[in-house]
């Protein structure tokens, strides 16, 4: 499982601001950390996902963040 590098996810989720403020904070993070956070959030609702394409996309993004998939594979999973 991908870990969010050098940032405590619990700390981010506990920020006592609106989601707009959290979005502003997230936008200041490096792109990789934004992707890791998005993957973390998606995995929280993974059990509700019924579409195999969505599940495959999560799998490919996780592999990409681990260095086991190419950007082309990510684009293919998105299509």
Name the assembly state: single chain
Q: State Rg.
A: 13 Å
Helix amount: 55-70%
Give the strand content: under 5%
Series of H and E elements: HHHHH
Q: Could you describe the largest sheet, including whether it forms a barrel?
A: none
Write structural notes for this entry.
The protein is mostly helical. Helices cover 63% and strands 0% of the residues. It is built from five helices and no strands. 3% of the residues are buried.
Keywords:
mainly alpha
Topology, please?
Blueprint: H1 9-13, H2 19-27, H3 31-44, H4 52-65, H5 71-78
Helix pairs in contact: 3-4, 4-5
Short description:
The protein is mainly α and 79 residues long. It has five helices and no strands.
């Amino acid at each position: 499982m991908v870990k969010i590098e050098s940032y405590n996810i619990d700390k981010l989720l506990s920020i006592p601001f609106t989601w707009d403020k959290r979005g502003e904070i997230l936008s200041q993070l490096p792109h990789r950390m934004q992707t890791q956070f998005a993957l973390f959030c998606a995995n929280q609702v993974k059990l509700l996902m019924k579409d195999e394409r969505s599940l495959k996309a999560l799998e490919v993004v996780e592999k990409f963040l681990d260095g086991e998939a190419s950007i082309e594979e990510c684009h293919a999973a998105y299509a």
